[in-house]
Amino acid sequence: MSYEVKTEVFEGPLDLLLTLITQHKVTVTDLSLTDLVSEYVAYLDRIAHLDMEITSEFLLIAATLIQLKARFLLPDDEPIDIDEELALMEERDRLLARLLACATFKDVAAVLGHRLGANQQFLPRTLGLDMDFPDTLPEVHIRVDARGLARLADLAFAPPEIDPDLDHLALDLPSVPDAIDDLRTRMAGMMRSEFDRMISHCDTTLEVAAYFLALLELARWGIVGVNQDHRDAPIMLTYEGTP
Amino acid sequence: MNTRGLLEAILFVAEEPVAAPELAQVLEVPVAQVVDELTAWARDLEQRHAGFVLREIAGGWRLYSNPGAAAYLERFAASPGASRLSQAALETLAVVAYRQPVSRGQVSEIRGVDCERTMRTLERYGLIAEVGIAPGPGSPILYGSTELFLEKLGLNRLSDLPPLAEHVPPADVVEALERPFRPEASSSESTN
Amino acid sequence: MNTRGLLEAILFVAEEPVAAPELAQVLEVPVAQVVDELTAWARDLEQRHAGFVLREIAGGWRLYSNPGAAAYLERFAASPGASRLSQAALETLAVVAYRQPVSRGQVSEIRGVDCERTMRTLERYGLIAEVGIAPGPGSPILYGSTELFLEKLGLNRLSDLPPLAEHVPPADVVEALERPFRPEASSSESTN
User: Fold this and answer.
1) Kind of pairing, strands A236-239 and A224-227?
2) Same-domain check for residues B127 and B159
3) More confident of the two residues B128 and C137
4) pLDDT tens, position by position, B33-86
5) What pLDDT sits at residue C42?
6) Neighbouring chains of C at 3+ CB pairs within 8 Å?
7) Same domain for B94 and B61
8) C117 lies in which domain range?
9) Are residues B92 and B61 in the same domain?
10) How many angstroms separate the CA atoms of C79 and C75, rounded?
11) Chain C residue with minimal CA distance to A136?
12) Pairing relation of β-strands B52-57 and A192-194?
């Protein structure tokens, strides 16, 4: 079985968002949230196999984006729950602050990289005292304690090129494309259902999130119709067939 | 041999930058005199385009080959410098340098990805090191940058790092980042 | 930079004596000119009682610290800043301590860089020592840690070294490292 540990281009969800937004700044005039969400979700589809931590982070941010999108699409005369609204805006501001910090560190990292490169032109002498220097053994200072030495040994024995975490990778992570296929097939068979019933087999929140993302895609394609009477009502699904 | 000569001898064999007070102690002369001699020597070397330069770095003084000769040195130097750091490693290094002391969790939170591997790489290169334990739940290890980090970047002290504020994206980029998240932006959509 | 400057730069970083024809080839100047420059430089250094001297030795040219500074160099060597082990030396020491008895080749393989010089430094400081000869081709020398090593780390015996708990190397890495020493070699590998 083969799987990818690293995403193709992006290092994590913030990196992805940042790239999607800044790319558009160059090519298109304005990037709408709708476009951003669909590009983000489309990318999510392509990285089916990631380690758990990255995936949950991706999904978490996807959830925030989708919430924001849903909120913005609400008609103006719709009543608004102030608490929910505040929480959502707080979440949005937090995401923006993280994006900004991420962009800042990316920028300064380039400067550090440049400095590192430029300084490699300065070579120090590394020979130290001539080896034939008087026999006296200078008192040596080991600037780490036993624990520090153990840490160094740990690092040396697990070289960074080798990823020791591969073994703990859960390989059956929820895949959004799989969820789309499953949802589509099952909906075709029953025509009408509730979202809760469609996810009754899911054990983890991540799986539910994958199904929710799948549902949004199917709704966008017009394959499944979605209806919810009020905020606490069940989400009703209807199969609309192939678009 | 005069003080200049002795300073030359010591810095010739030194394997890391040596602080002026330490040199003063070994030579039993005032620190001010050491600093004067070193400053004059550094200027001499520079003026006559010598093959090596004297730099004040990481809180001390050390001799380095003149970068102008870099092209000729590849065959003779044993250590052509640390291998190039990946983009991820550089970004992680930047976060640790500017946010220190900082835990791995905090670095990962800022970067949006788990940074264990890159931090291990940086620790192995000696660019970052454990500097303490955070109080509170889990007592996470705190990391900071090392003297070697300063030396590799050619900085004398941490405060010589370029100010982070200068690297906050310019207004138009911030504007672009925020735009999709503003309600007005989505009002003009006609699709779906 | 002129020829003198380039010669200074090369001999500053060179770890072994460099022959005049080799220098001439790198700098693309006649050998005679190189010899003239070096001879003049050596005389300059001597006349002004510089901290280092240029000697023609073993068919090549190499810089040495001025023996006249020996007393001060010894004092410097004993000062706290001088005899601190470099990051590379510390890592090498850690590898030898935890893998002893171990050959230089094995240490180099684990660290991914040639460890000859750092191991010589450690040996010179008395932190590691030869402890035997490995059987097999080449009869490589095996190294281990010394009493001084234990003393410096404040340990009574080797078994007091903290266990390597955090990052036990994955089985396949251990396997790969051990393979050359096993007679049955890579006969039965067919995982995945």
Assistant:
1) antiparallel
2) yes
3) B128
4) 999 999 999 999 999 999 999 999 999 999 999 999 988 887 776 554 445 788
5) 96
6) A, B
7) no
8) 87-167
9) no
10) 6
11) C74
12) unpaired
**Cβ contact B111–A73 (<8 Å):** no
pTM: 0.71
> Which ipTM was obtained for this model?
0.76
pLDDT of B16 over the 50 cut: yes
**B107 lies in the same domain as B160:** yes
| Whether B93 and B153 share a structural domain | yes
Residue of B nearest to C73 (CA): B10
Q: Do B142 and B91 fall within a single domain?
A: yes
Q: What pLDDT, on a 0 to 100 scale, did the predictor assign at position B53?
A: 96
B97 & B161 share domain: yes
Q: What token pair was written down for C52?
A: 């280092």
Enumerate residues 6+ apart whose C-beta is below 8 A from C129: C123, C143, C144, C145, C146
Are the Cβ atoms of A13 and B73 closer than 8 angstroms? no
Inter-chain CB pairs, B–C, below 8 Å: 121
User: H-helix or E-strand containing C91?
Assistant: helix C87-99
Pairing of strands B102-103, B128-133: unpaired
Least-confidence region, from A23-32, A56-65, A214-223, B130-139: A23-32
State how far the Cα of C117 lies from the Cα of A94, in Å rounded to an integer. Answer: 51
pLDDT at A27 over 60: no
Q: In what order do the strands lie in the sheet with A192-194?
A: A192-194, A236-239, A224-227
Contact C5 B78 (CB under 8 A): no
- Closest chain A residue to B10, measured at CA: A129
Residue C177, domain member (yes or no): no
Identify the residue among B2, B3, B6 best suited for mutation to test binding to C, counting C beta carbons within 10 A and taking the highest: B6
Tell me what pLDDT residue A132 has.
55
Count structural domains, chain C.
2
Say if the Cβ atoms of C170 and A140 lie within 8 Å: no
Report if residue C182 sits inside a domain.
no
The residue among A226, A232, A233, A228 whose CA lies nearest residue A192 is A226
Which CATH number fits the domain that encloses residue B130?
A: 1.10.10.10
Is B64 in the same domain as B92?
no
Examine residue C178 and state whether it is found in any structural domain, yes or no.
no
CA distance A40 to A217: 12
Residue showing tokens 């870099």: B70
Whether residue C50 is contained in a domain is answered as yes
